[in-house]
Amino acid sequence: MMRASDLRRIFEEALRQYLLAVQTPLELLKPMVYSLNSGGKRLRPLMLLTILEAIDPRLIDKGLATAIALEFIHTYSLIHDDLPAMDNDDLRRGQPTSHVKFNEATAILAGDALLTDAFGLIAQDRQLDPALKTQLIADLVYAAGSTGMVAGQLDDVSHQDQSVSIDHLKQTHLMKTGYLFIFAVKAGGRIGKINEKAIDLLSQFGHHFGTAYQIHNDLKDILAIESDPDSLLKSDEANHKSTYPSLLGVQESKDQLKHELHLAASCIQALNHQTGLNFSGLEQFLGAISIE
Questions:
Q1: Which of 207, 208, 83 is nearest to 157 (CA)?
Q2: Which of 151, 212, 224, 286 is most enclosed, with most CB atoms within 10 A?
């Protein structure tokens, strides 16, 4: 079984080779590369590759273009989220955001390029058959577009200064964050051609992981504020957004996080049983978002 660090090296090299080969004008390529290399954990592409490694390590190469496309979509969303009309953030991961580093118009266009190019990456992948490419593109449209991430982002922005129910918050974050995790694991299953029952289990895993991921992020914000009150200025609380701790309290949020992690772990066990394969590599992602 390969470690996440090994899969990341494979992914980073594939991304580097792709960016070296593209014909994108330099003034557009610079902000694209800047945001792609801003220190992200690559969780989504690594999940996809982890699924393929569990099915057959020889399949990893077949998933690289889709993994890069997924990171393109995620990166574009961060560029646009940071814009003045959205979250209006000057920093991301300790570095100037794209619109600060370059300018607002350039940042918007770099995000547009990443979004558009993502679908070309899948469509032009010669390692995948046409039917599979069509399915992957359709799945990614659902996850990232007007039924998924974009809809979730609009709902998030529209409900600033409003308290929402916990069910509403879960649905918002499912669309905004969870659907891309679901796509990541389902795409791995589809490329690996496992059965539909297993793909359904992967989808359930992605759902529970996505919920746990958001609860974890909300709790991290609270812990950061406790240790550094100045960090409140950049938190969702400062932007008047509902969070799991604001609706449930810290302790119940921790309990909910543990519950979602338990459900995700149960999906891994069911996958192992259903397929006869070993998907325990997914457990490392659960460990990365646990809080005692």
A1: 83
A2: 212
**Overall average pLDDT of the 21-44 stretch:** 95
pLDDT per position as a tens digit, 142-171 = 999 999 999 999 998 888 878 899 999 999
Structural domains of the chain, with CATH: 4-288 (1.10.600.10)
Task: Please tell me the distance from the alpha carbon of residue 156 to that of residue 77, in angstroms, as a whole number.
Answer: 13
Strand boundaries in the chain, DSSP class E: 91-92, 95-96
**Tens digits of residue pLDDT in 90-119:** 988 889 999 999 999 999 999 999 999 999
Give one DSSP letter per residue of 206-269, joined into a string.
Answer: HHHHHHHHHHHHHHHHHHHHHH-GGGGGGSTTTTT---HHHHH-HHHHHHHHHHHHHHHHHHHH
Task: Tell me if 209 sits within 8 A of 177, measured CB to CB.
Answer: no
Amino acid letter, residue 46: L
pTM above 0.90, yes or no: yes
Residue 36: is its pLDDT beyond 60?
Answer: yes
Closest CA to 216 of 151, 183, 264: 264
* CA Rg value for the chain: 19
Distance from C-alpha of 11 to C-alpha of 137, rounded to nearest angstrom: 20
Q: How far is residue 82's CA from residue 264's CA, in Å, rounded to a whole number?
A: 30
Tell me the C-alpha distance between 79 and 109, whole Å: 10
